[in-house]
Amino acid sequence: MSKAKRAGLRENGDGGMTGVDDTALASAIGNGEDLAPFIRAAFEVGKPETLIHQLKSFVKKKEVEIEDLCKLHYSEFIRAVDELRYVLVDADELKSGLAEENRQLQEIGDTLLRMLDALIQSHGTKKNIMQAIESLKMCTAVVDLCMRVNENVMNDSYYPALKALDIMERDFLPVLHARALRQLLERQIPVCRAHIERKVNKEFNDWLVHIRSASREIGQLSIGQASSARQREEELRGRQRQAEEQSRSGSKELVYMLEMEDLDEDDSQLKFDLTPVYRAYHINTCLGMQDQFREHYFKNRQLQLNSDLQISTTQSFLESHQSYFAQLAGFFIVEDRVLRSAGGLMSSARTEQLWESAISKVTVVMEDQFSRMQDANHLLLVKDYVSLLGATLRRHGYQVGPLLEVLDTMRDKYHELLLADCRYRINDVLANDKSERMMMKKEYEYNMNVLAFHLQSVDVMPAFPYIAPFSATVPDCCRIVRSFIEDSVSFLAYGGHIDYYDLVKRYLDKLLVTVLNEALLRLVRSPTLGVSHAMQIAANMTVLETACDYFAQHAAKLCGIPTRLVEGPHGALSAQSVLRNSQAVAHDTMIKLVKSKVDEVMNSTLNINWSPDEPPTIANDYLNDVYIYLQTIAETSQEILPPTAFYKVISGVLEHISRRIMETFLSEDVKRFNIYAVMGIEADLMLLEGFADDKYRTSVQDRVPGVQPLKSFLAEARQTVNLFMATQPDLYLNPVIRERNYGALDPKNIIIIGEKFKDLPEKLFGRGGKVAPKKKLIDALIKRLKNEA
């Protein structure tokens, strides 16, 4: 229908069609257009009469126009009337045809309308069926998802279950037409999520309980790995030192081998399950509760840590320290794994916060427990485990400096306890010493007591049984010192000091000086000390001084310092000079004791007949005892003392004997003496000089270069006897002769002794032609000496 035609249709107030616009109809007729739309519209509204009436009105109007026109055009009008009559006839025929067409159209339209209604109903049914099918498909998919959720929850596959819940909530709920199912899902989805959250959190809480009990085992295993790594490192250093020693010794076949297996420790044996943590964190992240779970995890682990740091009240710290530190190590090993693999559950800052909290409490506990310990072995035991703890946690990236600082503060206390223990053991050894030279019957005894401490004087294995110059005290003390070195190195090693040899050396010097040397000096200064005991102590001191080189080398070896760096004077222990000085004290004490014994024997010189009537044929009786005693002392000291000490002892005794002879001459108890008495002293001196020459030749001459002969220490007595036996004693007044032959004499002593000299009775002069009177010569010499004075 054209726009004009559509505009010609008029509507009433009820929205129904009431007729056709006359103008439009007239325009359509005038234009010769098809009137079917007008007719169809009239029939559609059920009022064809109105159209007919309009057509009639149009006809009448046209008739009027025709009449008017006819008046103007009569002839034409007549023709038009005729034509109009024909039109009327045609109109009647058209009316009849239209009525018939309308009837037929109505019949056909009713059928079509019924069919259209059926079609529309069928389309509605089809649409409903399709919607029902789609709804059923959606419900089926939702039910499948629900079944899958239930199955995943039953199989503890919480993430797929949550993803299925998210799909249901995002993709199905907004378009789900099944109201009951939609309401069910709206109620059950939060319930299911809450159920998953509870199950995951329960698994996590169970893991918290499990991991706390497993942390101790994890820590023990990791600390054991650190101990094994340390042992391998020490073995490697030992092989390296051995190779260096072989290189220095000039060995041509050197084999260097570095075993790489197991050098890099990994965590392959540290197997512990973090799946509940990963799952709980992932599920809570999916639920949008990751921040709450992080806080929950941190607070619970913090509570566990605080509980782990509590000291056991049922056990001593010595018994519980390993489990205590193993628990701590296991805790932070787990935390390190969580930090590295849990995808942001723990931050570095929070892990560091836990570590700083733990380290502050642990250091307080260690300081308190160390301050209570009074046994060096206990302290060393705890220290070793703490150092392994530090090595273990350092491998996992933790700063263990505060732990090592606590160990460093305990260094002096540990060594004081160690010194106290060594002092007790050394005093016990010295108290039980029999002061007898040690006899070794088997080679293993020699290896254990001599070679082990480098005490051998020659590199050749001696014949057995072998009698050492020292007593059993020496190897016993060496073992104590060696154990001290090893314990000291054990404490200082793997601590805060990289180069700790100087510390070990300092404490070793302290042991040797303040403990061993002082104990030996107390024995030397004991009022009940005998000569043999003093001599054995002096010999032991000499050997212990030699052993200081071994002690320094052993300490350097344990500290990983090449022995070449400690060889020579610059690497010697200061205790060597102290022991050397103490040897001098022991030698002086021994000489003092020997002199005392000699004094006891020589007190009988006052019983000598100072005015005999016959010249002596042998030495005086007292000297036989002195000579036997000197031989005994010389034999013993020659075997156990070094040549310099032997020389010092024998020379000191001889000098003392010479001085005692002079004191006897000067004594007021000797009022007078004659030439025969001088001859007796001369015989005594000859015996002593023979002894001195023998010992000098066999024990001193080739071993102590640059020293005076031993008999020179009898010079004062010898020169006095020579002076009074000289045929011309006045030659003493000659400075050259005096310096050469009488340099040891004091003129004052010559005056005193000379005044006691007397001639033999006249009846004895000339007996045998051997003795001539010389009183006058002596008196003249004395007079000249007095004048010079």
TrEMBL record:
GO terms for biological process: acceptance of pollen; exocytosis; Golgi to plasma membrane transport; intracellular protein transport; pollen germination; pollen tube growth; vesicle tethering involved in exocytosis. One of its GO terms (cellular component) is exocyst. Residues 230-250 have a biased composition (Basic and acidic residues). Residues 54-222 form the Exocyst complex component EXOC6/Sec15 N-terminal domain. InterPro entries: EXOC6/Sec15, EXOC6/Sec15_C, EXOC6/Sec15_C_dom1, EXOC6_Sec15_N, EXOC6PINT-1/Sec15/Tip20_C_dom2. Residues 222-250 are annotated as: Disordered. The keyword Transport applies. It is found in: Cytoplasm, Cytosol. Keywords: Coiled coil, Cytoplasm, Exocytosis, Transport. Residues 402-756 form the Exocyst complex subunit EXOC6/Sec15 C-terminal domain. It holds the Pfam family Sec15_C. Belongs to the SEC15 family. Component of the exocyst complex involved in the docking of exocytic vesicles with fusion sites on the plasma membrane during regulated or polarized secretion. Involved in polarized cell growth and organ morphogenesis. During cytokinesis, involved in cell plate initiation, cell plate maturation and formation of new primary cell wall. This is Exocyst complex component.
